[in-house]
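Dear colleagues,

As part of the handover before I leave the project, I'm documenting each prediction I ran so the next person doesn't have to rerun anything. This entry is a single chain, and its sequence is reproduced below.
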Amino acid sequence: RLFVWADKEHISRAFINLVKNAIQSVPEGKQGNIEIVLEKTDQNMAIIKVKDNGKGIPEDIRDRLFQPNFTTKSSGMGMGLAITKNIITTSGGNISYETELNKGSLFIVELPCLNE
């Protein structure tokens, strides 16, 4: 268990969005596999990894992924990842991702740990 300095409601929203996106990335008819891993670095950072076995992120949209109003879904306003990134960076952290088409994506969140 690790403790980070972040607004409870906001950070919950960020991770709910990442998990929801992971679930939604799995194509119809495929058994979904979502992994969440928590680690701590030597630099006192919490690393949270959210991995899915979904469709992956097409190369032509990767540079717009965290932009407001960008979505690949038929509903919603496209604010999910933009808000998620804002919450994480406001908390002193960083978010990045790795992706492979038809294999899935891995979102990596780094947040500073509280000194215990």
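Strands lie at 35-40, 45-51, 94-100, 104-112. Helices lie at 8-25, 80-90.

All the best with the project,
I.
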